[in-house]
């Protein structure tokens, strides 16, 4: 039986061209190709940048099928192949010259008066105000109060997301072999009116981070999940922990995290 590979591309010209070339080459190499989700497929290929990779993961609802990224985008932390190396990739893939990297997800449970919903993120979950006013959040871990936060918001990142928004907000880059969650304050206020922690806090992966909003001026909050905004009215509580679901990322033999960090932005 022929093995099926799903291709999900963004709409850039180069991505569409790459998709067409890749389709032809995969068919020549004996694979079936689908542009739609197929639960029997062996591999998903996302064509674009990191944003497209994240969109593929969310659109396909955190699939069990491994995902490979082909970079036609900007940065490409998740992507391991460039369009001009497709032949080499197909050769390596058929030979099994690749590893699967388990990517942990953070899970945020958002409760309003009537109900709770679960959201999952590869990179990060950000809690911020709907308008530009200061927000006030009570922070606890495993039901022990830490401190009230006042400022723009709180960002909780996975080790994978540590190089994204977290890094821009002054958080630390995390080696992917570590199991943890990093909570980074966004513009915390430190005055005689409001006191709050100014650096990131590192929690073990299985900690239960609790956030209780205090509504002083606004009663709606934005929950930004991997860069996508969700607006909520009157959240009563937010609980965040590491999910037991993983996404499997295809890494080629030459992948090494710290070389990628130094080549991409240090
Ligand atoms: P975007 O606004 O286009 O992303 C901003 C940049 O982050 C892009 O260059 C993207 O790479 C890069 N990126 C994404 N995930 C990364 C990772 N794990 N490590 C290093 N860089 C990464 O939006 P997007 O492409 O949909 O990505 C969503 C992410 O953007 C969010 O999860 C958040 O972390 C990040 N973000 C960052 C800021 C900030 O730095 N101030 C603000 C908002 C959101 P590509 O160019 O390859 O897409
Ligand atoms: Mn992007």
TrEMBL record:
UniProt key word Kinase: yes
Enzymatic reactions: NAD(+) + ATP = ADP + NADP(+) + H(+)
Keyword Cytoplasm recorded: yes
Cofactor(s) needed by this chain: a divalent metal cation
Coiled coil: none
PANTHER family: NAD KINASE
Family note: Belongs to the NAD kinase family.
Active site (catalytic residues): 50
Positions contributing to NAD(+) binding: 50-51, 55, 123-124, 133, 152
EC number(s) given by UniProt: 2.7.1.23
One Pfam family in the UniProt entry: NAD_kinase
GO molecular function: ATP binding; metal ion binding; NAD binding; NAD+ kinase activity
Annotated compartments: Cytoplasm
Function noted in UniProt: Involved in the regulation of the intracellular balance of NAD and NADP, and is a key enzyme in the biosynthesis of NADP. Catalyzes specifically the phosphorylation on 2'-hydroxyl of the adenosine moiety of NAD to yield NADP.
Keywords: ATP-binding, Cytoplasm, Kinase, NAD, NADP, Nucleotide-binding, Transferase
Gene Ontology cellular-component terms listed: cytoplasm
Gene: nadK
Annotated protein name in UniProt: NAD kinase
One GO process term, biological-process aspect: NAD+ metabolic process
Classification of source organism: Bacteria, Bacillati, Bacillota, Clostridia, Peptostreptococcales
